[in-house]
Design brief:
Rossmann fold, 7-stranded parallel beta sheet
Length: 356
């Protein structure tokens, strides 16, 4: 279909994150996936192609984002995990201790199970980016404007400058991965207290009351859930004035990981690179990115159905359907890695080329 998908994927803008609002600066470059390739995939299915249901939908999505039917195999899938601590964890909203995300980030970066095994099995690369850990981890990529965040029930998570820096960091990570040949990005977050910030953002963007978006996160009990609900309620009340100001919202009740993921998702869309979203924090960032550039969501799909109220509230807003439903509570990249073989299977069954 004319020039190759790789040729169509755009180079970084010469000054990619100007004007002052970095979100708008990226959004201007976002285009639609290839509508003709999507139509060719639908025609194939309707003419008796060997797939239906979700696999056929994946073939259509892959065809559009690759500008080719049949789609071809993903040559370099990369899982990028943005790690940050959240000050709201001090309110006892998580089953994990406040400020302890560094322990999990170190394990993931070292390839501890299940990450090392799954990454090897799926031939996907793995990268952890520290955008706001309270305690740094030696040997991982660091893009920190602030270590930790403010308690969002009482104060802003970030300054405006720190939020901008985090957005820029996420966008630059996307550029680096794409420039190194990544043709499928998997996005996830690591952060104690992150699901509380995500619930606040989801409640504000969707207009759904806090009680209907606050989930159990890391597996909290009823008392911790009530503390989490109170925190989200107060953060929502504080941050509602930023409903139409996406960068302000990320600063008020988001955090470094949410801001970086927003920049990452928008940048990938502007560079015509598909993304698999994993977890409620990443989905909350996708909601914010969607508010900035609605067409960006056409470049994304969702790894799996997380049994979280906020996650379930956000999905209809984006119109995305999870690839898998494994009843996994976790949203830290495991589901995204597991989705890669299914995406490759869809390519194979549609007649596309695959790795040997």
């Amino acid at each position: 279909m004319g020039e190759s998908w790789a040729a169509q994927r755009t180079e970084p803008l010469s000054d990619p994150l100007e004007p002052t609002d970095p979100l708008s600066g990226i959004a201007t470059a976002i285009d639609w996936p290839d509508l003709q390739a999507e139509a060719d995939a639908r025609t194939w299915r309707e003419a008796g192609g060997r797939l239906d249901g979700q696999l056929a939908s994946l073939v259509e999505w892959l065809s559009g984002v690759q500008a080719s039917f049949p789609p071809h195999d993903m040559r370099r899938a990369r899982l990028v995990m943005f790690a940050a601590d959240h000050g709201i964890a001090e309110a006892g909203v998580s089953a994990r201790p406040a400020g302890s995300t560094n322990i999990q980030a170190a394990d993931v970066a070292a390839g501890a199970d299940p990450y090392g095994g799954l990454a090897h099995f799926t031939t996907a690369g793995l990268r952890v980016v520290d955008v706001g850990l309270v305690e740094p981890v030696r040997g991982i990529d660091t893009r920190v404007a602030r270590r930790g965040t403010g308690r969002i029930d009482r104060e802003n998570a970030l300054s405006a400058e720190a939020a901008e820096a985090a957005v820029r960091a996420g966008a630059s990570v996307a550029d680096e991965e794409i420039d190194c040949g990544a043709d499928l990005l998997l996005a996830a977050a690591l952060g104690v207290g992150g699901s509380t910030a995500a619930a606040a953002v989801i409640s504000i963007v969707t207009g759904i009351e806090p009680a209907k978006v606050v989930g159990r996160g890391s597996g909290i009990d009823d008392n911790a859930w009530m503390r989490k609900l109170a925190a989200v309620r107060d953060a929502r009340w504080r941050s509602l004035p930023y409903r139409q100001d996406q960068l302000g919202l990320l600063a008020a009740c988001g955090g470094s990981d949410l801001a970086a993921l927003t920049g990452f998702l928008l940048r990938a869309a502007s560079r015509r690179t598909p993304v698999v979203i994993d977890g409620v924090v990443t989905l909350a960032a996708a909601l914010v990115a969607h508010e900035v550039a609605p067409r960006a969501m056409r470049w994304w799909t969702v790894a799996h159905a997380v049994p979280d109220r906020g996650y379930q509230a956000a999905l209809p807003r984006l119109g995305l359907r999870p690839i898998l439903d494994l009843h996994l509570r976790r949203g830290d990249g495991v589901g995204a890695l597991i989705s890669v073989p299914l995406l490759r299977a869809a390519v194979l069954l549609a007649g596309g080329d695959t790795k040997s």
